[in-house]
TrEMBL record:
Organism: Cryptosporangium arvum DSM 44712
Positions of transmembrane segments: none
Lineage: Bacteria, Bacillati, Actinomycetota, Actinomycetes, Cryptosporangiales
Coiled coil: none
Molecular function per GO: DNA-binding transcription factor activity; transcription cis-regulatory region binding
Name under which the protein is recorded: Transcriptional regulator
Pfam family, one: TetR_N
InterPro entries, A to Z: Homeodomain-like_sf, HTH-type_TetR-like_transc_reg, HTH_TetR, Tet_transcr_reg_TetR-rel_C_sf, TetR_SbtR-like_C
Keyword DNA-binding assigned: yes
Residues annotated to bind DNA: 28-47
Amino acid sequence: MVRSDARENRVRILAAAREAFAGDGDPSMNQIAQRAGVGAGTLYRNFPTREALVLAVYQHELERILETVPALLAAHPPIEALQRWTLDLVDAMRQKHGLGDALSPGAHQAIAEQSYGPVIAAITQLLDAGKRTGVVRVDADPADFLQFTAALWRAATEPEDRAPRMLALLLDGLRRR
């Protein structure tokens, strides 16, 4: 069993790393440890390599996004829930790919393989909610929708982020006529 202080250290490290990676520059492991308020030994005990830390940050973020589906569906109509969830996913995908230099090709592949099933399940849940209420086309396919998200995270962000506008077009195409 992991001690509570060790769990808290891990949570602080992940939060500090997420914040550091999202900012400008390329933070060192020591800078991340300082930001988390832990020693370098604690950081390396939890994450022996920079790649291990990056993978853990991405996995933690993905789990957070996946866990939001029920709350989004409870608080919003299905199309709006799908829109909010997708924009959150797109942001996470952009962050992951922004860290590309820190990850080996094998790590990118591992992320894709580990996340595909859970992401498809979340999209299925969101689309099925829309199908049940009659607002989403019955032929809407979760795998097709996921393919479209790749275009969204690659969409230009300057001078403005084009992903929300592109997603609005996609969601309009999902609506049952």
